[in-house]
Structure to design on (380 residues):
């Protein structure tokens, strides 16, 4: 019952607040106007949907952390008097909440004023630092062959690794927000998988938080799925990414398996894979890493003849397979995990190869560059 309350609170609030966000967006200038052929939409669209996700998720997490969760713990111990609850990261969740508020503000400012890339990056580091200060950190990873079966990190090393993880995952979710419903749907899938993984390892507060995130994303999705009525904007995508990044390293979720962060990496496999190849592709073609192109997974699926709906559903499928693989991995079912990862990899390969060339994803699409080059010419 407690878990349902958390999920439904986020879902109902996000669903109810999205129409309000649609009305507010034009009044504050939160509009996405297609300026080049990278855009998948042809008309101006409100991009303030992150407000609905933020309100739903934050209200649910705050309510859960300070009201519902203590009630859950009391009921749990009454029902299982011999059980011992694993210490729950309430203080860490406070850091997640604080950092989540900051990252949402950063995203909204970027939606309204187009924040310079360097400033945006430094702001993300600040948000990661806030979470780190509250104890959300990677102090060690489990690994065979080392003392006590773990690799321990000193203070500064722990800080660097933690911030890299948080900023990296935050941006991967932001970068895949290119098709209607893609980022919200994949975030919901990842959240549900992490919620289950946290639950089976006794990290109940993290499980509650991930259910809240899934509820917020799914509450927004009916308005965002193709044809979308509103985009989430950077406020929404950065917030989703930050919440996934921080909660994936809170409590037992990060240390319950043999190779600590493999589970979260598998859950977030689609955005991580897409971002890694985007960076590699741009380096190979000697283009700025932060420069947008049409070589992302979803673009390739569109070029293969799938429409927006089928492309998004295909990536949902891949994300779901990777999520199940992460759950299996957390249960030490490594052979089954490898099999599912192989299926997902084969699926990606089939859709991304053209003319039997497996490196097509690394190639620059010269047709995509033309509009950007035309924009650089001064107007007559």
């Amino acid at each position: 019952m407690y878990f349902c309350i958390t999920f439904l609170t986020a879902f109902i609030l996000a669903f109810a607040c999205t129409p309000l966000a649609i009305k507010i967006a034009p009044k504050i200038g939160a509009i996405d106007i297609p300026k080049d052929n990278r855009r998948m939409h042809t008309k101006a669209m409100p991009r303030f949907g992150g407000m609905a996700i933020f309100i739903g998720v934050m209200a649910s997490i705050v309510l859960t952390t300070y009201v519902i969760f203590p009630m859950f713990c009391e009921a749990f111990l009454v029902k299982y008097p011999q059980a011992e609850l694993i210490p729950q990261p309430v203080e860490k969740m406070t850091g997640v909440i604080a950092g989540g508020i900051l990252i949402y503000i950063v995203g909204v400012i970027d939606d309204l004023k187009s924040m310079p890339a360097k400033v945006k990056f430094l702001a993300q580091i600040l948000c990661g630092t806030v979470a780190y200060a509250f104890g959300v950190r990677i102090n060690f990873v489990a690994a065979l062959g080392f003392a006590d079966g773990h690799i321990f990190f000193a203070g500064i090393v722990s800080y660097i690794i933690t911030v890299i993880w948080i900023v990296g995952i935050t941006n991967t979710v932001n970068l895949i927000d290119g098709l209607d419903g893609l980022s919200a749907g994949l975030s919901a899938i990842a959240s549900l998988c992490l919620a289950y993984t946290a639950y089976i390892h006794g990290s109940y507060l993290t499980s509650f938080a991930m259910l809240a995130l899934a509820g917020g994303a799914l509450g927004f999705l009916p308005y965002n799925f193709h044809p979308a009525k509103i985009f989430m904007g950077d406020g929404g995508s950065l917030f989703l990414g930050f919440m996934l990044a921080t909660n994936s390293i809170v409590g037992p979720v990060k240390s319950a398996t043999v190779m600590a962060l493999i589970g979260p990496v598998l859950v977030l496999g689609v955005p991580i894979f897409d971002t890694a190849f985007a960076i590699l592709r741009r380096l190979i073609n000697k283009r700025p890493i932060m420069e947008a192109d049409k070589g992302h997974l979803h673009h390739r699926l569109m070029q293969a003849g799938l429409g927006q709906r089928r492309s998004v559903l295909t990536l949902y499928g891949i994300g779901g397979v990777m999520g199940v693989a992460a759950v299996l991995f957390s249960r030490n079912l490594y052979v089954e995990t490898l099999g599912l990862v192989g299926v997902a990899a084969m699926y990606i390969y089939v859709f991304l190869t053209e003319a039997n060339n497996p490196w097509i994803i690394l190639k620059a699409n010269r047709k995509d560059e033309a509009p950007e080059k035309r924009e650089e010419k001064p107007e007559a």
In short: DSSP finds 14 helices and four strands in the chain. The longest helix spans residues 50-79. Residues 254-260, 355-380 have pLDDT under 50 and may be disordered.
